[in-house]
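Sharing a chain and its predicted structure for anyone who wants a worked example. Both blocks are below, sequence first, tokens second.
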Amino acid sequence: MTEPADGTDLPGGLLMVGDKSVYLDGFFGVRVPERWSATLAEVPLLSTTPPGGESELDASALSQSLVLNPEASPRGATLSLVHYEHSDSVPDLDRFTPAIADLLSGDGSTIGDSSEVTIGKQPGRLHQVTSASGANGVMVTLRAGDEYFFILSLAADTSYAGDVGDMLASISMVPEALHS
């Protein structure tokens, strides 16, 4: 990755650009609140079409790329970025979104109606979520370059709700970083 001129490389491979932590080889930037950290950060690979193509969502092709949690209470809240490794066979965001909502509601979670949003300069669909365990949050499906992702953020402990909202509002994405 080529570091931006104002980037500061920190121990552990974390790059800071201004007040944002930059992950996944420069693809994903976010303002991480104090005492939150990444518990998983894996650069997504460009998607591949399975033999014979696809007619429906393949749940085994979902791969977590980034998970951020509060250090004091990792189960208290989470922000997770999930990549669909067969993105190159997805026809459009309007078909991807209900497939992900159906998958996530399979455990009894409630997924609300979608509204159009822009997250990290990428078009997306935002849904309110109440997990089967009662945690509240949002799910955002989005397209970055030619790749499809969803972000799931939940706060089981409502004291973290503000942090999660601030992180969502601060996200930036650079789709070109996935192609280098």
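Comments welcome. The CA atoms of residues 77 and 160 lie 6 Å apart.
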